[in-house]
């Protein structure tokens, strides 16, 4: 019986070969790729696939029994010659096929390694590469982008263990870099990011993109917008408290290292970072930089001077909920609510009306006029200058010949009195020498001599509030005034780090200069019920009113009427809820006052300012309504009454909630409409709580305005009902003696 024909692969005139001897061998590859090769090609199924693929490339010829010997015998045969001639192209094709197969295997190896590295650089919703990282929301959209500007990661040094992705090398040397994923609750995911240089490098800089979202927070500024508008190109500069009235380009006296985005993302820079902030309007980016060189920040004692940039980025389901989480997690809360009188009745200050020319006679007349015109008063604030020299703690006998009798008369009239105070002692004060002898001042770097500083009232020393002796000396003088005259409390002015010398030393460490601001605000704690501060850094637990910086008597966004709502909203986002929106009509400073006669603010400006202030947590007069005419007095009486009966009860209710939650009292419209793009951009309306919406007129010559009503049912102060929000009310009429407000109907 004839043997069945077999099939083999013939390459030209060569001896038929088995497929396995001709295919690339796994042991010639790397162990990793070899394992992949064996699993891919040596399995029964892949072996058949390989055979079929090669069969389609090459000629399969039948071989009869004994033909191998004949074909390979001496001398060959015509068949052998024919096959030898025709087989040369097949030899070339087989070699090319082997190369292609080997190339495919190598490519697959690289792809597998690349795929594993891609998985390595993913953690939760974050994707990391050598140049930065991006974060997605649950829907897959990119909501946060950060680029590494000062260096790139060496990806070969990176590893992942659990929720921590870390790297040990950058293009400039050793570093400690990690991103840790934290899931504090179901709707929030956070990332702890740290880039710490371990070799001699001057700075670390990361650049955050806006990602077509709106950003809020950061700091009080002279020109305040809501949302933030970063204008121009600004190199990173120290993010510390400054007096923005005297330096309009600085960061303000109330600031925190916290920003919030309409994309439901938030970033908090760690306290240990020597933090500098810059920006690019062109690139729509914020520049976060850490450095000690050419900076007021200092490393802690016995700490290397290598910079470290660390922060937390959190992503939530919506902007309101992520902000609530950040406030509860990272901000302290007030420990009590200030005096209810401050919420209900206006503060009356001597500053804008009398400036430094105040006297005992003027103060008593001012109090009498308040009573005569039928106004209430939470307290009467005696401002600069009641002492003979700056840095003293008793009344100038020339201007106040009978201070004790004056206080008695004011108390009889039902007035409580607070006094202006500050951290400076001028060199011509009788207290200057005593403070030098007791070493109470901030000193020069050598630590021997007091560091003289220039402030708006002269030259002198500034008390070192890191020094327990200086704190005790200052506090004892305030308590002396309180006990001797029955002073109710104090207006604590200044406190910004911009009044520290560029080079200085303090008894306690000040690695972050803004800690000086924090120490100064602590001096208000014994007097909190009626105290007033104008600075704040990590001071949310100081339970007193925080006054926004002095306003000019103008309409615009630069310290004018239009800046008040954005400023109050901003510092509210930073955790400061007991807000005093400065004096009605502004401070009437020369060359900073619009219109008006006899140095007064413009009459219309004053009225619109008064109406807005009536819907703030507290009201403050200095220039009195009777400085104008009877109509202004009547409008003022109407709105102080409205404040006491409508606004104050609601604000007081919310103030007690602040102790637990830290939620703003004055809220942006997006607080109740976080899926509404229009609500993110409105800076001339606000909410008190969730159901009272206010829309003041902020333009000169206008008795109408456009009003945006978020979704829901609303009732106007005129009794009108609107049930089909969101909607715009175009040219809504608002008379000069009115302010538009709406109640949300649930």
TrEMBL record:
Keywords: Glycosidase, Hydrolase, Membrane, Transmembrane, Transmembrane helix. Residues 349-646 form the Glycoside hydrolase family 31 TIM barrel domain. Coiled coil: none annotated. The chain crosses the membrane at residues 90-113. Gene3D superfamilies: Glycosidases, Golgi alpha-mannosidase II. GO terms for biological process: carbohydrate metabolic process; skeletal muscle fiber development. GO terms for molecular function: hydrolase activity, hydrolyzing O-glycosyl compounds. Residues 662-744 form the Glycosyl hydrolase family 31 C-terminal domain. CDD domains: GH31_NET37. InterPro entries: Alpha-glycosidase_related, GH, Glyco_hydro_31_C, Glyco_hydro_31_TIM, Glyco_hydro_b. PANTHER family: GLYCOSIDASE FAMILY 31 (PTHR43053), MYOGENESIS-REGULATING GLYCOSIDASE (PTHR43053:SF4). Belongs to the glycosyl hydrolase 31 family. This is Myosis regulating glycosidase.
């Amino acid at each position: 019986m004839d043997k069945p024909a077999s099939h083999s692969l013939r390459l030209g005139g060569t001896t038929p070969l088995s497929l396995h001897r001709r295919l690339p061998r796994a042991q010639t590859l790397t162990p990793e790729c070899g394992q992949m090769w064996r699993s891919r090609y040596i399995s029964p199924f892949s072996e058949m696939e390989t055979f079929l693929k090669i069969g389609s490339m090459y000629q399969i010829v039948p071989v009869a029994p004994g033909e191998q010997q004949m074909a390979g015998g001496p001398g060959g045969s015509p068949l052998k010659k024919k096959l030898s001639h025709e087989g040369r192209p097949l030899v070339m094709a087989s070699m090319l096929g082997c190369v292609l197969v080997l190339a495919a295997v190598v490519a697959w190896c690289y792809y597998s390694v690349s795929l594993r590295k891609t998985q390595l650089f993913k953690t939760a919703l974050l994707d990391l590469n050598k140049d930065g990282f991006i974060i997605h929301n649950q829907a897959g959209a990119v909501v946060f982008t950060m680029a590494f500007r000062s260096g790139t990661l060496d990806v070969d040094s990176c590893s992942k263990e659990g929720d921590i992705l870390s790297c040990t090398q950058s293009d400039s040397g050793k570093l400690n870099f990690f991103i840790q994923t934290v899931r504090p609750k179901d709707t929030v995911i956070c990332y702890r990011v740290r880039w710490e240089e371990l070799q001699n490098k001057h700075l670390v800089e990361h650049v955050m993109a806006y990602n077509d979202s709106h950003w809020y927070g950061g700091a009080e500024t002279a020109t305040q917008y809501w949302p933030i508008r970063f204008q121009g190109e600004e190199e990173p500069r120290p993010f510390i408290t400054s007096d923005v009235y005297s330096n309009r380009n600085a960061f303000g006296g109330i600031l925190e290292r916290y920003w919030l985005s309409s994309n439901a993302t938030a970033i908090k820079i760690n306290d240990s970072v020597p933090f500098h902030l810059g920006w690019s309007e062109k690139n729509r980016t914020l520049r976060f930089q850490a450095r000690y060189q050419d900076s007021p920040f200092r490393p802690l004692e016995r700490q290397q001077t290598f910079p470290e940039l660390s922060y937390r980025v959190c992503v939530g389901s919506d902007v309101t909920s992520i902000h609530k989480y950040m406030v509860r997690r990272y901000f302290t809360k007030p420990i009590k609510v200030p005096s209810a009188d401050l919420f209900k009745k206006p503060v009356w200050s001597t500053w804008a009306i009398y400036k430094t020319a105040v006297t005992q006679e003027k103060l008593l007349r001012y109090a009498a006029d308040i009573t005569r015109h039928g106004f209430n008063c939470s307290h009467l604030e005696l401002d600069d200058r009641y002492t003979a020299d700056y840095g003293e703690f008793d009344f100038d006998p020339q201007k106040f010949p009978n201070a004790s009798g004056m206080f008695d008369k004011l108390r009889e009239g039902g007035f409580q009195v607070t006094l202006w105070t500050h951290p400076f002692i001028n060199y011509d004060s009788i207290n200057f020498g005593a403070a030098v002898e007791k070493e109470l001042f901030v000193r020069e770097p050598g630590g021997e001599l007091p560091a003289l500083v220039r402030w708006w009232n002269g030259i002198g020393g500034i008390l070192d509030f890191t020094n327990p002796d200086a704190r005790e000396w200052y506090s004892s003088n305030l308590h002396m005034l309180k006990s001797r005259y029955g002073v109710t409390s104090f207006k604590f002015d200044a406190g910004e780090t911009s009044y520290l010398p560029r080079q200085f030393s303090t008894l306690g460490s000040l690695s972050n200069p803004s800690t000086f601001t924090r120490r100064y605000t602590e001096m208000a704690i014994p007097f909190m019920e009626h105290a007033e501060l104008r600075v704040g850094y990590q001071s949310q637990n100081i339970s007193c009113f925080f006054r926004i910086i002095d306003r000019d008597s103008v309409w615009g966004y630069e310290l004018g009427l239009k800046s008040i709502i954005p400023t109050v909203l901003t510092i509210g986002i930073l955790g400061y809820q007991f807000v005093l929106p400065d004096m009605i009509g502004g401070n009437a400073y020369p060359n900073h006052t619009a219109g008006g006669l006899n140095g007064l603010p413009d009459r219309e400006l004053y009225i619109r300012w008064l109406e807005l202030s009536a819907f703030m947590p507290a009201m403050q007069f200095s220039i009195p309504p009777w400085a104008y005419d009877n109509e202004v007095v009547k409008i003022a009486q109407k709105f102080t009454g409205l404040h006491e009966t409508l606004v104050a009860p609601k604000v007081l209710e919310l103030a007690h909630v602040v102790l637990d939650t830290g939620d703003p009292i004055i809220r942006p419209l997006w607080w109740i409409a976080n899926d509404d793009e229009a609500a993110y951009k409105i800076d001339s309306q606000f909410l008190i709580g969730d159901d009272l919406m206010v829309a003041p007129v902020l333009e000169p010559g206008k008795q109408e305005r456009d009003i945006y009503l978020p979704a829901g049912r609303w009732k106007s102060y005129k009794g009108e009902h609107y049930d089909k929000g969101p909607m715009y009310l175009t040219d809504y009429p608002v008379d000069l003696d009115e302010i538009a407000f709406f109640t949300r109907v649930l």
